[in-house]
From TrEMBL, chain A:
Designated name of the protein: Alpha-D-ribose 1-methylphosphonate 5-triphosphate synthase subunit PhnH
Cleaved signal peptide residues: none
Transmembrane intervals: none
Domain of life of the organism encoding this protein: Bacteria
InterPro entries documented for this protein: PhnH-like_sp, Phosphonate_metab_PhnH
Annotated organism of origin: Devosia crocina
Automatic annotation (TrEMBL), chain B:
Species name: Devosia crocina
Enzyme category, top tier: lyase
UniProt keyword annotations, A-Z: 4Fe-4S, Iron, Iron-sulfur, Lyase, Metal-binding, S-adenosyl-L-methionine
Protein name: Alpha-D-ribose 1-methylphosphonate 5-phosphate C-P lyase
Taxonomic lineage of the native organism: Bacteria, Pseudomonadati, Pseudomonadota, Alphaproteobacteria, Hyphomicrobiales
Family (UniProt): Belongs to the PhnJ family.
Gene Ontology molecular function: 4 iron, 4 sulfur cluster binding; alpha-D-ribose 1-methylphosphonate 5-phosphate C-P-lyase activity; metal ion binding
Length: 198, 291
């Protein structure tokens, strides 16, 4: 059976996609604040249910996607092809979305699609699993969506993340946007956010 | 509206929603920047706010409560039709009370009541490009935004001052978002511009005919363009609302008879009704005048 081979999609596709989208919208509109991300459907190692939810909600044949090494193995490409039709690309600079499994290396932010001055929206969104959304090195965020400052302490970010992010911020309005997932929550970091401390 | 007979949840198919949702997320990440999207035919004419309708349809879920206003009123044909449309295709709860709504779709006004965190204001936008009347070519206006070349806009406003002694623009008064993009707030009166500044609500803008979506996230700086010697000012009204006595709100003129009789009343009908229900009254706010 196809559904067995490729893992299940959403249990209720219309309702679940809307719920996942609103979580992601809230996450990007309130940078650094964790939002509840409900996941439905079967999980398919190494593709976790929450990462799969965002993939099903946002990607389709119009959005080339990049997959981290662990995701390239196994049946994940079958799941992607069957449920989304999104072409898988090896170069993150050609991807609308870059999906990173827990523990896998991230693409360098600067190697992703950063958009153009006239079309800064034509850029990559990185969707990455991390071990936890709190408990990591403390950073403070400022920018649109934030009243004053917002604490940001995810664990498991790339070591030079702060530097990569400040370079990304300097490109504004170009740049990548970031979604971090752990357990059943998502945190958004749009390109407009500045790390003001940490 | 035959097309509605056999519909998807909130009318749009899932692929269209995905495309619009992606555009909305980019718009939130780049405040004030106009994201192109492929607008779909909706079962209503363009003038009816198809851009706003498509945005609302793409964000709305079964738990949302929708309010629709047209020039501040919940009871115009346009507002009633859009509300009925969503009640039918999304079976969503509707309301006329600003405080109860999770999504407010609007044409030409921002409610008087301060919007709260978690609320989303969806604007119906006819012409999203604030530079369009200065430069008709899309390729050129894109370049101007890319280079932050907003000098022409200031020249236009300054010509106003030279001609009228003040900036004459009262609707669609241009704003700068987070110090970067110049944005058209849609044809709201400039009276409403300060409400956009650091609002706790998320503001989304949809232009159907022009295929553009843009956004202002909560807590974002929205500053009306002005000059040091001619600072931005909102409209002032000499008298309070004749029905509810409200001051510091936007008023519409209502003609009472053919002998020049008129009164000024709240453009935000829900705000006016809530005040009158609370017992507040203006000079014409007798029981008979309300009926
Ligand atoms: Zn009133």
């Amino acid at each position: 059976m196809l559904s067995h081979d490729f893992g299940a999609g959403f249990t209720e596709p219309v309702r679940d996609a809307q719920s996942c989208f609103r979580a992601v919208l809230d996450a990007l509109a309130h940078p650094g604040k964790a939002q509840k991300l409900l996941a439905s459907g079967q999980r398919l190692e190494p593709l976790q249910a929450q990462l799969a939810s965002i993939m099903l909600t946002l990607s389709d044949h119009d959005t080339p996607i990049w997959l981290s090494p662990a995701l390239l193995e196994g049946d994940v490409s079958g799941f992607v092809g069957f449920h989304t039709g999104a072409p898988i690309v090896g170069d993150p600079a050609r991807a609308n979305f870059a999906f990173v499994a827990l523990g896998d290396p991230w693409p360098k932010l600067a190697e992703c699609n950063l958009g153009t001055d006239e079309y800064p929206d034509r850029s990559t969104t990185i969707v990455a699993e991390v071990p936890a959304l709190t408990g990591g090195p403390k950073m403070m965020l400022a920018g649109p969506g934030i009243a004053g400052t917002q604490e940001f302490t995810p664990a498991g970010l790339p070591e030079d993340f702060s530097l990569q992010w400040s370079e990304n911020r300097a490109l504004f309005p170009r740049g990548v946007d970031l979604l971090l997932i752990a357990d059943d929550q998502v945190i958004g970091l749009p390109r407009s956010s500045r790390i003001v401390e940490g | 509206m035959n097309a509605v007979a056999n519909y998807n949840f909130a009318y749009l198919d899932e692929q269209t929603k995905r495309m619009i949702r992606r555009a909305i997320l980019k718009a939130v990440a780049i405040p004030g920047y106009q994201v192109p999207f492929s607008s779909r035919e909706m079962p209503m004419p363009y003038g009816w706010g198809t851009g706003g309708v498509q945005v609302t349809a793409s964000i709305m879920g079964p738990d949302d409560v929708l309010k629709v206003i047209d020039q501040g009123a919940d009871d115009t044909t346009n507002a009633v039709s859009i509300r009925a449309f969503f009640a039918k295709v999304a079976e969503v709860k509707t309301t006329t009370h600003t405080a109860e709504a999770t999504i407010i779709q609007t044409r030409h006004r921002i409610p008087e009541r301060k919007l709260e965190a978690g609320q989303i204001l969806v604007y119906q936008v006819p012409i999203p490009e604030p530079l369009r009347f200065l430069e008709p070519r899309e390729t050129e206006t894109r370049k101007m935004h890319a280079l932050e070349e907003y000098g022409l806009m200031h020249v236009k406003l300054y010509e106003d001052i030279a001609r009228h002694g003040r900036i004459a623009t009262t609707y669609a008064y241009p704003v700068k978002v987070e110090g970067r993009y110049v944005m058209d707030p849609s044809p709201t009166p400039k009276f409403d511009n300060p409400k956009m500044h650091r609002s706790e609500a998320l503001q989304l803008f949809g232009a159907g005919r022009e295929h553009r979506i843009y956004a202002v996230p909560p807590h974002t700086d929205v500053v009306s363009l002005d000059f040091e010697d001619h600072p931005f000012e909102i409209q002032q009204f000499e008298k309070p609302c004749a029905l509810c006595g409200a001051e510091g709100v936007y008023l519409d003129e209502v003609i009472l008879d053919d002998r020049g009789g008129h009164m000024h009343v709240c453009s935000d009908t829900d705000h006016c009704e809530e005040r009158r229900e609370a017992g507040l009254m203006g000079v014409m706010g007798t029981k008979e005048a309300a009926e």
